[in-house]
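sry for the spam today, last one i promise. struct tokens for design, 116 residues
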């Protein structure tokens, strides 16, 4: 039995709300119980310099936990290092594995994931 009364094999309630950020071409708020993650997608017309004139684009991701996202304040990872950097890299690798980077043309897609 878990602390919230769920059996050990029971999932937390899941909800997904789309188009939650006005200026992002793509955005979603995903909630797993009380854990909420805001994900946004932004496009840039040019890929990173090392991919210019290659005919393909790039997808990158950033991950962060907001300071009040846990019982004790989480320090902002402004230097982009440590755990946040590694989780962002993992998200980027997972998404690049399922996106045809040649099909998107020479652009860059950035996915931002922020734990609320």
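last one done:
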């Amino acid at each position: 039995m878990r602390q919230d009364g769920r059996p050990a094999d029971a999932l937390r309630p899941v909800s997904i709300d789309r188009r939650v950020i006005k200026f992002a071409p793509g955005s979603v708020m995903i909630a797993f119980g009380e854990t909420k993650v805001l994900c946004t997608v932004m496009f840039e017309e040019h890929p990173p310099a090392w991919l210019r004139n290659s005919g393909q684009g790039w997808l990158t991701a950033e991950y962060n936990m907001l300071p009040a996202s846990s019982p004790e304040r989480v320090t902002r990872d402004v230097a982009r290092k440590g755990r946040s950097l590694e989780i962002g890299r993992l998200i980027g690798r997972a998404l690049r594995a399922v996106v045809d980077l040649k099909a998107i043309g020479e652009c860059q897609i950035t996915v931002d994931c922020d734990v609320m």
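The two ends are 26 Å apart (CA to CA). ok im logging off now
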